[in-house]
Each structure stands twice: as C-alpha cells, then as structure tokens.
Amino acid sequence: MPDTLHAISLDLDDTLWPMRPVLVAAEAALADWLAEHAPATAQIIGSDWRRHRRTELLRRHPDKAHDVTWLRLQMIEDALTEAGEPRDLAGPAFEAFYAARQAVQLYPDVRPVLRRWAGRYRMIAITNGNADIRRIGLGDLFDVTVGAHEVGAAKPDPRIFALACEKAGVRPDQVLHVGDDIDRDVRGARVAGMRAAWVRRPDLPEPQWPDGRAPMEHRFEGLEALERALESSWSHLRNPHADRPSSDPQPKTRSAP
User: Fold this and answer.
1) CATH 3.40.50.1000 describes domain 7-18+105-231
2) Directed axis angle between helix 223-231 and helix 110-118, to 10°?
3) Under CATH, which number does the domain 20-101 receive?
4) What is the pLDDT of residues 221-240, one digit of tens each?
5) Per-residue pLDDT for 78 more than 60?
6) Which of 86, 102, 109, 188 is the most buried (most CB within 10 A)?
7) Which of 160, 190, 158 lies closest to 173 in space, CA to CA?
8) Contact 15/4 with Cβ under 8 angstroms?
9) Taking Cα atoms as reference points, which of 132, 71, 83 lies closest to residue 103?
10) Ranges in the chain annotated CATH 3.40.50.1000
11) How far is CA 257 from CA 53, 102, 213, in A?
C-alpha cells in the first residue's frame, strides 16, 4: 500500500456544516412559498403528511431511495395534486426550498482548513444529499463532486466512492475520506479500499448505537484536529486492511487510517 496521500474526499452535511438548522430553515421557506402561491397545498403538506408520503414513495420506488431531490419534488407534486392546485408550481416551490437549503452555516474550521488542503491534495466532495458546493461558496476548493443521484446509489455503496476516485484520477488507496457517519462514511470508504477518518462534531447529538456503546474508533472533533494528525503520524490509527491478514507495512506519516 502506498504511503502517499494524493486526495481527500469529504462528506458535506454534518461534516462541513450542521444539517438540522438548514433543513428546518428550508422547510420553513417552502411553507412560506406555498402559503403565498398554493395555500391549499400549504395546509396539507405538514411533517406527518411528508413522513407518510415519503414512506409510500419509497415503497413504490425503492430505486429512487438515493435521490433526495426526486423525492422532494415528487412529494411537492403529489401535495399540489391532492390539493387541486397546478402541478407546474412544483418547480418554483422546490427552488424556494433548495435555495434555503444552500444557506448553510459553515463550521469555523472549514474554509481555512480546506483552503490549505486544496493547495496540497486533490479535493473531492461526496454526498448523499443535494447540497451544491458552488452555491454554498466552496466550489473553488473542490476539484470533483459526486452525488448519490448521479451514481444511482448512496453511501456506503462502494460505487459512489469508486466514481469519486475515477473522476479525481486517483486510486482508492491514495484517498482519505472524511465524514461524520461511522457506517456510511468510515466503514463504507474502507470497504471501497480508501482510508477513512471519523469527524464527529461536538455539537451533534450522540448517535443511538445498537448495543449502547460507541464504536472503538478514533474520533476527531473537527478538521483542525484531523489536520494536525495529518502532519504527525497515523501509526496509532487503524489501517483499513487491519481486518484481513496482510504483509503491508503500517502507514507512515501523511498516510490515513
């Protein structure tokens, strides 16, 4: 396994910014738009209705589970139809939601760390969501963006990681993937042959672990802590092939776990 790190890929939501506040704001923006332009629809498209309709859509279209934009648009169209209002309002209604969805509040360490990394590594964004890094203002810091909608599969499916590596022109073992989700990001990336680092922001609620215990996994509280590790030694962190017998040496400085 090579010791050189050529690229860093990053999850977006809850890694570069907190997800819940922006989703709450986007839902509010959609509700305001509908109240003005489609008031009958605004009356029925509450949280319970959305939850039940999403469940029904996923039951009927399991092949679309990865495409959050399609799901959102379909729910808006269904609500308009149910309320007897024009379905062609779905596009502008979605845009009201989508514009607010891009109004994220970056964690303070994001821009300075990404700027330094962008000068040294190929930078890749990998997301299951529909954040647009160009509209958010981070487009100049990434070389490649890959979303679940274009792959037809979401993390932890190895295909999304494989496409990211292909588009960036690097091998999986030359990439460090960084994300907040232990299964989708860390374990998913490792299955795909990449290295991985778990960044879990202190402001996020602790996940509900199946056995009540957090994984035995090194956790970084932010990008600056991870950056310091990149500048020192990764020997104390887990090699992605540690589960399998291997004669490969342990990673050296500037390698990822």
Assistant:
1) yes
2) 30
3) 1.20.120.1600
4) 999 999 999 887 654 443 34
5) yes
6) 188
7) 190
8) no
9) 132
10) 7-18+105-231
11) 41, 31, 22
